[in-house]
Amino acid sequence: MSVISGEAYWAHIITPNTKFNPDGEWSIEVCNLNAKNKKIAEGDGLTIKNKDDERGDFVTLKQYARTRDGSTRSISVKDSERNTFPNSKRVGNGSKVNASYRPVPYTQYGGGVKGYLNAVQVVDLIEYNADDFDIVKGGYVSEDTDDLAFAS
How many CB atoms lie under 10 A from the CB of residue 76? Predict the structure, then answer.
């Protein structure tokens, strides 16, 4: 097992991502790796990516949400004091994390090393918020919010 630290992006660590795999995958991009964490990842053979955006140097870690026999596989998510992270919160982009993973070599598609996500410790949370707008104090408030009609 190895542990790297960085900023979380596209974290699916509370609920598995089912977009490409109906059984779900746990995944996280650990981004803005400093020299020490980049050296750990490179030493394990992981591919360091950089798309010239806010993520800087990063690695993607994943784990299947189901085992080969079909049983559910969970990952451990903890806060900075190693308490269980609440399921009611979501880890947003830029959150500071430590991620534990197991590097596993593969030979398909030209070979390489995949980082299998084991656990995540959220050190500094930036909570993900799905709301598009902030509340505007003193602004217009609809009296009838049940029957909102949208133009077609």
Answer: 14
Q: What is the domain range of residue 109?
A: 2-124
Instruction: Identify the burial level of 96 via C-beta atoms within 10 angstroms of its C-beta, where 0-12 means exposed, 13-18 middle and 19 or more buried.
Output: middle
120 class by beta-carbon count within 10 Å (0-12 exposed, 13-18 middle, 19+ buried): buried
Residue 138 maps to a domain: no
For residue 152, the Cα-to-chain-centroid distance in whole angstroms is: 36
Residue found by looking up tokens 């993520």 in the block: 55
Rounded Cα distance between 14 and 121, Å, is 12
**pLDDT one-digit tens code per residue, 35-94:** 999 999 999 999 999 999 999 999 999 999 999 999 999 999 999 999 999 999 999 999
